[in-house]
């Protein structure tokens, strides 16, 4: 998950002392839940698939279309409602829009499939022939560098009553298992793809309970460039029931590995620094560990150019068990400081996903799962204060596409009188117009680069960035 493309940026600044504002709105309160951000409708902002179990034990959620930061449930999308699952967006069929890989439990059986985007707010099951699993993970990834998205997954196969982890290549509009790579069967397995060795192919890390020997398992598998993978013995701590995440924590150009989970009874958290030939544990790493299907989210939340860490789950220390939800800011020196300015909902058996849903240049945060009470919880936190005045005006306009090439469209939803002023980054005005209707701007003669668009009326204004290719 987490293929996020930054598009429009609201002109602002923010520092370590950032605050988060609850903008959950009507999103459903779910447990045993999961989420995935993706611009499925191609309008330049990130939409949301969110699914899980309601407190009445039925499944809830669905596909939510983002319109200037407001989320509307898309009815009759064709996407199933699942719990104990996972999802990932990707252009599976190469037609330029995002499709959705899904796995989970629908209340009767487990489901795993690719749902193809029809381009009209509906999706159709591809019937990919993948194992029907849940309580695991699923990801799109180009495993053999052929430009086509393949599949990696873990989970419990209800039909055969076994846990598994497998890789599948998409070939001739079908999936073929990579038989040369035999992965250990993982309970509560997590999978994260990344080019950790900088050789231009995707490797991956897996973490879970190895059901062959009932031992915690966390290992990296190296790609030979053709989609064949070899398990690496790199001295990683062996944990499960937690999460794994890649990120260049020390800004040296190599991807490091953050992990949390349990190896026995107590929670653990580790930062494994990538030195180019192996990994070494950072002794300064000081975040609170968590397990019970914990979630890590790595992003530059405070805008200082270094990766911060959000973690939620259950911290287990002996007989003490505490639900936690904490944001740690990267000091740039190998240590992290807890951001005490904010309080987040703490969950387990859920998900945490960062995304700039309102296009202001700062990663926001969605959290969903079961609280300590056992009730479902979903919270969407906007990173930074919200200007009610600017937000109110921005919601009345839609500016798309971004990036743009030949034409830029400005939709005036309320028929307001307004002024458009477009400048390049030097401040030179390249377009200005007063209007009270929708406007189409021919930008085919504009030089490629970043431009600023200011929309104003007699009371308020807002500014967004546009990339012209």
Report a brief summary of the structure.
The chain is mainly β and 469 residues long.
Low-confidence stretches: 1-16
The shape is globular
> Which sheet architecture does the biggest sheet show?
4 strands, antiparallel
Q: What is the arithmetic mean of pLDDT?
A: 91
Topology diagram in text:
Layout: E1 20-22, E2 31-38, E3 47-53, E4 59-67, E5 70-73, E6 83-90, E7 99-105, E8 110-117, E9 123-125, E10 133-141, E11 150-157, E12 162-171, E13 174-177, E14 186-194, E15 203-210, E16 215-223, E17 229-232, E18 240-247, E19 256-262, E20 267-274, E21 279-281, E22 291-299, E23 308-317, E24 320-330, E25 336-338, E26 348-355, E27 364-370, E28 376-383, H1 388-394, E29 397-400, E30 407-412, E31 418-424, E32 429-435, E33 439-442, E34 449-456, E35 461-468
Antiparallel strand pairs: 1-28, 2-3, 3-4, 4-5, 6-7, 7-8, 8-9, 10-11, 11-12, 12-13, 14-15, 15-16, 16-17, 18-19, 19-20, 20-21, 22-23, 23-24, 24-25, 26-27, 27-28, 29-30, 30-33, 31-32, 31-34, 34-35
Verbal overview:
With 469 residues, this protein is mainly β. It has one helix spanning 388-394, and strands at 20-22, 31-38, 47-53, 59-67, 70-73, 83-90, 99-105, 110-117, 123-125, 133-141, 150-157, 162-171, 174-177, 186-194, 203-210, 215-223, 229-232, 240-247, 256-262, 267-274, 279-281, 291-299, 308-317, 320-330, 336-338, 348-355, 364-370, 376-383, 397-400, 407-412, 418-424, 429-435, 439-442, 449-456, 461-468. The strands form nine sheets. It has a four-stranded antiparallel β-sheet with strand order 1-28-27-26, with no helix packed on it. A four-stranded antiparallel β-sheet has the order 2-3-4-5, with no helix packed on it. The protein has a four-stranded antiparallel β-sheet with strand order 6-7-8-9, with no helix packed on it. A hairpin with a 5-residue loop joins strand 8 (110-117) and strand 9 (123-125). The radius of gyration is 22 Å and the shape is globular. The two termini are 27 Å apart.
